[in-house]
Amino acid sequence: MKKSRRKFIIYASTIFLSQPLFAGYAKKINILKEPYQSAFILYKDLFEIKKGIIYELHALFFEEIHPPKVVELNSIAYFAGVLADERIMKSSREYLVKGFTWLDETAIELYTKKYIHLQYSQRQKVLEHINALEWGDDWLYRIMSYYFESMLCSPVYGANINKVGWKWLEYEPGFPQPKKV
Amino acid sequence: MKKQKVYDICIVGSGAGAAPIAYELSKAGKKVIVLEKGKYYHKEDMNKDEIAVSRRDKFIPSLQDEFHEITTYDSEGKSESTTSYDSSWNFFNGSLVGGSSNLMSGYFHRLKPKDFTLLSSYGKIEGANVVDWPISYQELEPYYDKVEKIVGVSGEVVHHSTLEPRSSKKFPYPKTWEHPITRWIDSAAEKLHYEIIPTPRAILPYDALGRSGCSYSNFCGSYGCATDAKSSARAALIDKAVLYGCEVQTDAFVYKLEHNAQGVITHADYYDTQKKSHTIKAKIFVVAAQAIESVRLLRNSSSKLHPNGLGNNSNQLGKNLIFSAGGSGEGTFNYDTLTQKQSDALKIRGAFVNRSSQQWYEYQEDGKTLKGGTIDFLFEHANPVARAMSQVYDGDDLVWGERLLEKVHHKIARSKTLNFEVFNDWLATDKCFVSQSKLKDKWGVNVANIHLYGHPHDIKVGEFLAQKGVDILKALGAEDIEYTISSAPPPNLVAGGCRFGNDKKSSVLDKNCKVHDIDNLYVSDASFMPTGGSVPYTWTIYANSFRVADVILKNFG
Hints:
The structure holds 2 protein chains of 2 kinds.
Chain A: H1 6-16, H2 25-31, H3 33-46, H4 52-65, H5 67-83, H6 90-111, H7 120-131, H8 134-152, H9 164-168
Chain B: E1 6-12, H1 19-27, E2 32-35, H2 50-55, E3 69-73, E4 79-83, H3 84-87, H4 118-122, H5 137-152, H6 181-192, E5 197-198, H7 233-243, E6 247-249, E7 253-259, E8 265-271, E9 277-287, H8 291-300, E10 321-334, H9 340-346, E11 355-357, E12 362-365, E13 368-371, E14 373-379, H10 384-389, E15 393-394, E16 397-398, H11 402-413, E17 415-425, E18 433-440, E19 446-451, H12 456-476, E20 479-486, E21 494-496, E22 521-523, H13 538-556
Parallel strand pairs in B: 1-2, 1-9, 2-6, 3-19, 9-22
Antiparallel strand pairs in B: 3-4, 5-11, 7-8, 8-9, 10-17, 10-20, 10-21, 11-14, 12-13, 14-17, 15-16, 18-19
């Protein structure tokens, strides 16, 4: 059965937003420690790029610079940047964070463990489970969009290190590129 | 106490509807001030940062601060409302000096003579408010011509079945560098006996008019131009108006126009970024804040004399809002099914697909002549994140992991997608309009409530044209061909709401775009248009604004 928690949380978060949740970057990272870890694992699950056709085609390239780690790690850093980005509505940023809590709630409901403690196949099942829910579909879509931003943004954003995403997709950016964020 | 400066003319907005007036009146020595809500960006500020420009909407206000109420109708006709921030449905198109013209793709088509006589030429349509314009194509033609020369339009004039009358034989600038696929399109059309024409562009192919030529960056639409080759209102006109003495006040959100006891508009009130109110006095005022926001300003400027807003004595303000009807289609070329030469040709980046068809600008169906439209061809936008995100669904299901990455790799590295866009008339109706919302934005000012409705006839015409686009994609050998025609409005192609006309009871403006019953207030953005034609509006907006500039100059004597 589909359910929608998005609207609820967006309204609810307007109450939270009067709190200084995003007051300082360092403080924010600390507050978001748990979602930050969950994000790391989730990205890995959603974008497994060590196997399959892609790997076969680009094995040499990947081996040379170990892109999975680089891409993933900097995607996480990028995700932290997203949470501090005032151009994204605060309610949307809160929603991203809350999604990680719901992800854990679902993992506990299905396997009595937090998401990060599950085996790979169990994590896939959790993803499939939330994907069937309205909030889960919406939340995963947003997470994916920020992942691809981190993969394909200008390196001035601190992600797409060494243009690894662009090289993988043989992508030529438009010029001039930004000199700063 | 220092006496406040009184300008000859105060213009609200700085886009295509505003800039010709600022340019012409400044050039004529008048004291002109332009009030612009956004900032003054120059070509040096225009980089190709997808995150800032496209993903975070650098050039539009934050929807947390400024928004619209949006009202739609369900299949039973029951209305329901949402807001921009709840729906992410954004109707702001560019808050910066030069407005959304900075971000256009620059397909430039004129309206055709019959667009000015839609009612007389094609007759009534049930449920639609079709009318003739109070001016003819012949009256606007000299101004289309002026835009070609002063603003800058490039292209190649070829004789074709619906070519509109022109006073200049050629465009003043030759066509931009064309992508090899244009030859494929020409061959495919020839086989089908379809008529394809070169698309004119508001882009300079080489240095001219004090601006640099195109650098073929591959990122034109949605982005500001880094060379000023694109004929934006800022690069082509406002920068030059400033040299003639025009003042541009940025970060100025105009929230009210005030008048004296005689009904003469005396000043514009605006908020700066700190919400400090300022007043500008002038002899003549021009509103050109883009259709929806112009209606909002006039509505919010209500007074004892004009209790329902300026220009609304006949309750016409905000009525007959229109967009460009139609939709888009696409077909994909997979490199592994092409020869090396063909895939190498497709990989060429930056060159323009200057091809369109206006063969079906009108067509026959069941013995009746129907108004049709324009089909433009273009490559899918180069934004990589957008292209990657187009792959995250398989039908209704999200995909991830290897399957997703394979799809994304194929999309960006191993194929190229050719799109077409269909432009046909969005018929004005009683159900598509702008009203005053009770909701207020960060300034504490009532926002606009946009009521959206597309007439079923628009879909019928769009479907007809889309099939022609599909025929061409098929003849090209494209795969995975699909298209969408819907009544969802393209927010960047908006007009109407302040119809011009000869009858005060059915229009807001007179034929010169002066507000009925107010002698010193004009509206010169696309809101004057009673019908939209079947092309993008920008060339017509520029042309009409040059026409209004001449009217205002004559009034100064």
